[in-house]
Amino acid sequence: MGVTVLLISTLVVGIGATLVMDVWAMVLRRLGVATLNYAMLGRWAGHLLRGRVHHAAIAKAEPIRHERVLGWALHYTIGLFFAAALLALQGADWLHAPTLLPALTFGLCTVVAPLCILQPAMGAGWFASKTPAPLRNSLRSVATHLVFGSGLYATALLLSLV
């Protein structure tokens, strides 16, 4: 597999998996379940660029210009990065015959990012410990990242059929 095909495949798998995750979040919102507002991710990233890593409550931090766009762009960039990491670990051959277990396992591993980096930095604490329902919120993050892993697999599978 050539470098160009691998890069395009990585883009497709990363965007596809992130889209699957977004559809999941849309379904949750329609069911009345709160999901991450990507404007808050953009706000956190904007403050990070200014040297501030931690916030007591990101929603109370000063808004950043274009934070919603920045948050969505970062969300998809992270999805691309995770897809690239999975392909680096599995090798390009995985794209020809993708299997579910590596994608799900990798998706599960990616939950470390929100639970141990993003949530503490945004004021929610490690494993959402400063939220009203830490266990429920942590399990929701685990489920969302398993959905992302499913999206990695589903997108790679569709790509392998083309």
UniProtKB/TrEMBL annotation:
Keywords: Membrane, Transmembrane, Transmembrane helix. InterPro entries: DUF2938 (IPR021329). It comes from the Bacteria. The chain crosses the membrane at residues 6-28, 69-89, 101-121, 142-161. Pfam families: DUF2938 (PF11158). This is DUF2938 domain-containing protein. It comes from Pseudomonas shirazensis. The lineage of its organism: Bacteria, Pseudomonadati, Pseudomonadota, Gammaproteobacteria, Pseudomonadales.
